[in-house]
Amino acid sequence: MQTLTHYRTCNLCEAMCGLKITVTDNTVTKIEGDKEDEFSRGHICPKAYGLKDIYEDKDRLKKPLRKTESGEWEEVSWESAYQTIVSKIKETQANFGDDAIGVYQGNPSIHNLGTMLYGPGFFKTLRTKNNYSATSTDQLPHHFASWLMFGHPLLIPIPDIDRTDFMLIIGGNPLASNGSMMSVPDVANRLRDIQKRGGKFVVIDPRKTETAVKADRHLFVRPGTDVYLLLSFIHILFSTDKVNLKMTDSYTVGVDKLRELTADYTPRKVADITGVSEDDIYELVGEFTNAKSAVCYGRVGVSTQSFGGVCQWLINAINVLTGNCDAEGGAMFTLPAVDFVGHAKPKNRHNRWQSRVRKFPEFISELPVACLAEEILTEGEGQIKMMFTSCGNPVLSTPNGGQLNKAFEQLDFYVAFDIYLNETTRHADIILPPATGLENSHYDMTFHNLAVRNTTKYSPQLFEKSEGAKYDWEIYQELNCLLSGGDLEGFIPEKPEEKLKMGMKFGPYGLDFEEVKNAVHGIDLGAMKSQFPKRLVSENKEIDLSPDLLVNDLQRVRDSFDDLTKKTDSFLLIGRRHLRDNNSWMHNSEQLMKGRNRCTLQMNPDDAAILQLIDKQSINVKSRVGEVELPLEVTNNMMPGVVCMPHGYGHGKKGVQLGVANKHAGVSINDLTDDLVIDELTGNAAFSNVKVTVKAA
Ligand SMILES: Nc1nc2c(c(=O)[nH]1)N[C@H]1C(S)=C(S)[C@@H](COP(=O)(O)OP(=O)(O)OC[C@H]3O[C@@H](n4cnc5c(=O)[nH]c(N)nc54)[C@H](O)[C@@H]3O)O[C@H]1N2
Ligand SMILES: Nc1nc2c(c(=O)[nH]1)N[C@H]1C(S)=C(S)[C@@H](COP(=O)(O)OP(=O)(O)OC[C@H]3O[C@@H](n4cnc5c(=O)[nH]c(N)nc54)[C@H](O)[C@@H]3O)O[C@H]1N2
Ligand code: SF4
Ligand SMILES: [Mo]
């Protein structure tokens, strides 16, 4: 019997937990939290056990698949798959132009070193403007606000959770998600530590979440109205003379403008439509400004709404106006070992082109994924005929997934880089499955940049990839080589480690990659430090509190106000995450799917009583774009007028090879969410502004 211990970082979510994996005779026998890990201190969540399940999963694809004329799948060689793909690319470009090829890059792309480093290079050579990703279902508002206020879309403010005295969490549920745009392993203890040192944390959310239950206070807010609450928060800061920029004062502009813009938004005016009382708003601002340090953090719930961009702007503004930006215990900025931001120059990243059908502006070279289906379905010059997806399942993950499903059916050609035959990839003509998880080496290019503490850690591969399999970095570089007329004979793709080595050497700490490799529990580079104005990328190294694009968008906010005062019979639908789910793709793990059905519609008891619905009853939920049936779950945790279901379900479709997942099929929330309801400024999906009706099935 041969036993070895392997240390690595879990790449399944943003938290970067250190794992200690015991392997006996080439089989994983134990996965536990690595107590010596410099960042995660032994924390782990149940999803980590999923790494073993993914490695051993019989349904996971390991060889390229091609769909035959009769619709069956056959295994083909890499060379033959490559040849077909390259000739299809050339044919499509010659017949219909570069924009006839579309690309969707899904969430695990950024959790995967090879895909992250070499995927974009390949997609760039396609020269298409039809670039889509999960970013426009998720976080474009953060990048938009950071770009306009601090000069770079990746200069993201991170809560200094370990030192703050007051944390305001709006639309985030870190106890289920383990944090996002804030890599924070062991978040439950870190939040408890705020309380232990005499501080507080408050949650604003239409659902009393797992995080809200532990908070000092929870306030229900009506979905999609946070913008008014935030405007009112800033109004109070000015009207009660609580504005004090402290260190950032000498290089911040736009303060007076913001005073004017928020002048009308008294707590009295916004209380009714937000559902947060005047007293609660005053008390909240009081607590925030009286705390020695404080930080306002808003996540998916405030990004995925019609005014996501404005919300993230106002959240940043609150931190600046109260002297909590770039200050200990406030919203700080990381200095990662491999740094994308340090040498960047100010540049326009918006509206350099528009989508063909709805004319939405591009941002950071992407178009809103809510436009993807219409770009495939609408005939005319520039129509998408061929698609690539990488690490994504947009039929389940993007607004109006039902329509996108139809769109994928009618493509001329579709290539998926994916490890499963799922609801989206079943439409593919070719699937290229890379080695994944424990078969890969790993480094978090993105999440070290978003972490609550500066650390760095490299994880080696645990297992050899299976025979005949390829790494994603090999696949992308080989395709690129062939596409540019090269030959694979003698072609040696670059390993991601080469880029890492250079990135670290020329990074802010000048680290030796060998040293990083040897530090199996990671290297601590210290707490976040104040770095402004030096680290600002903006012209003149200023913080802009009133950028024109955001200020102009307030007109939409004003225009929507009256609509919100009208009574309606519809419910607002919001999403939720569960600790044992991971977006749409880990439902094939037996370990993670244990327990009761999670795909239920949660509703407040008063609403259920009015509609004469009872717990566990099968109900019908309908929106402008579709309808689904699922069991009702009556709970006091829901705000009246709001219903909630998880995303990522809706398995069990024809042709999908997912044994365990199909047993827990559920229905897709994105058969209800609306591609026409988006944040028109940033292009982000506005999942939380979707109206539905509910009745017995
Ligand atoms: N209504 C609603 N919809 C939402 C959300 C919501 O809150 N509400 N959340 C949104 C958010 S924040 C996100 S990020 C998106 C996520 O949505 P997607 O971007 O679609 O990502 P996943 O659902 O995680 O799908 C992951 C896919 O990647 C594949 N995969 C996993 N590992 C690898 C790998 O190593 N290599 C390759 N090539 N493939 C791999 C899996 O098989 C799966 O097909 O969903 C969004 N959709
Ligand atoms: N276990 C698990 N972890 C995950 C994921 C997963 O699927 N499962 N997904 C990962 C991904 S891709 C991401 S992006 C992160 C997301 O990380 P989080 O943002 O922490 O994730 P959510 O749990 O979706 O939290 C969003 C919260 O916003 C609330 N909300 C909805 N609408 C509104 C609104 O209008 N206003 C306010 N104030 N709140 C609202 C919801 O009730 C919910 O509690 O999680 C990551 N981690
Ligand atoms: S919290 Fe995230 S990183 Fe940590 S073990 Fe769970 S899935 Fe992995
Ligand atoms: Mo996400």
Would you write up a description of this structure?
- The structure is a single chain.
- This protein has 697 residues and is α/β, with parallel strands linked by helices.
- Among the domains are: 78-138 and 343-432, Rossmann fold (3-Layer(aba) Sandwich), CATH 3.40.50; 157-332, 3-Layer(aba) Sandwich (Dimethylsulfoxide Reductase, domain 2); 555-696, Barwin-like endoglucanases (Beta Barrel).
- It contains 22 helices and 30 strands.
- The strands form nine sheets. A seven-stranded mixed β-sheet has the order 5-4-19-18-17-6-7, with helices on one face. It has a six-stranded mixed β-sheet with strand order 26-28-27-30-25-29. A four-stranded parallel β-sheet has the order 11-10-9-13, with helices on both faces.
- Strand 10 (200-204), helix 7 and strand 11 (217-219) form a beta-alpha-beta unit.
- The longest helix is centred in the N-terminal third of the chain and has 19 residues, at 78-96.
- The protein is globular and about 70 Å long.
- It starts with a strand and ends with a strand.
- The model has no long low-confidence stretch (mean pLDDT 97).
- It binds ligand MGD (2 copies), iron/sulfur cluster (SF4) and molybdenum atom (MO).
- One ligand MGD is lined by residues 13-14, 107, 138, 170-174, 176-178, 180, 204-207, 209, 221, 223-224, 226, 299-302, 305, 574-579, 581-583, 688.
